[in-house]
Amino acid sequence: MDYEVTELSYYAQEIAKVARGLGLDFYPVHFEVCPAEAIYSFGAYGMPVRFTHWSFGKAFYRMKMQYDLNLTRIYELVINSNPSYAFLLEGNRLIQNKLVIGHVYAHVDFFKHNRYFRRTPQDMVLRMEAHARRMRDYELEHGRDKVEKTLDAVLAIQEHVDFRAHLGPQKSSAEDSNKKGGAQKKISVHLTEYADLWDRETDDEAEERLPEEDLLLYLMTHSSSLEDWQRDILSMIREESLYFYPQIETKIINEGWATFWHSRIMRELDLTDAEAVDFAVMHSQVVQPAKLQLNPYYLGVKIWDHLAEHYDWETLFEIREMENDISFVRNYLNQELVEELNLFNYRKVGAHWQVMDTAWEKVRDNLVKQLVHGGHPRILVMDGDYEGKGGLYLVHGHEGLDLDIVYLERTLQLLQTLWGKGVYLETVVDGKKILFECTSSGISRKSMAKVQDRQKEEQ
């Protein structure tokens, strides 16, 4: 085992030299070899250390079952931090680890230079460890059931943060630490890169500023029913969501970049004939098209390969720095690629799948549409005192896809526990505008036309 670690360390250094010689620039990377249980635990939790929740255990058992049945296999996990941490699957052959190490270096190069990661904290492993400790303290103080119920509600809406926050100017926590007062000052000590967002407006100014896209932040600053420790849980989940969001919106371009470079790095190594064959097999498995879903490795590397044929290296590095999945696909998935990859729009009609469109622009636009907001619905806070009764009025930015009604109603119930008063969501169902109302007495739905008629009568 010591010999394997020494050998792996040697090749990691050699591959790093090759990667840097090709132009990649990355943070130091610490590699660790882990058993499958550890790898899949990290994959389920998203980090080596994080607070506990039943949903993470559910994800672990699903991923581990797929591994045990040989349906999927995670060869590595890499953490966006400085230094970066990469975890290699125990039992990988040396040639597999060589490919994975090259893949990791390209990922870390992307993390370091892509503008969408500009604001992500580089010490997030330590921060999540601190979050886990605080969560355990709250469980001891307030009871595990109460903390878990709060987490259930917050995790149900964790994606609804301002995903543009990582692009704006950045302040240090110290700049704002003297501006806070009361309960908010007590909580602000836990916030770091995003502490400036606590310097909020008055209620009148907030109303003028609506709509608000950052639902978690709005609840933190305006809910009258939350206790200080619950606001702190919201702040922790929000910080973690802002950390993960850039990874969600750069999945295709990032995996494509890593795959593009690991193939070039491997060509520079002095491989034996057997290793060259093994590498070719592994690489083909990585970029194999999926039947009913998009393989981000496949689409991403095909676009990068096409770009490499038409642009110089400087341009490729500029694209790596400036684009996310939406702009990458919109700008560079052209007719030639759509036809080469045999992409088309399809949907299930009855019991069968049916091709709906093959026009390349419509195929590209449909894919871009699926990538907007990381594939999550856009929910806007429109009013924090609906009808003068303290209700929270939300609007779903409908983009042609209806919400899952069962999930919608359950989420509204959880959200209502955080807000403490009525929660209202305006959306579109089967082409008709509907208002869902969730209060302590239950959930109901009304036609927006009837709601508007009633409001006119009351005026």
UniProtKB/TrEMBL annotation:
Species of origin: bioreactor metagenome
InterPro entries named among the record's database cross-references: Spore_V_R, SpoVR-like_C, SpoVR_N
Lineage per the UniProt record: unclassified sequences, metagenomes, ecological metagenomes
A Pfam family assignment: SpoVR_C
Protein name, UniProt field: Stage V sporulation protein R
Domain SpoVR protein-like N-terminal: 2-374
Every SpoVR-like C-terminal domain range: 377-428
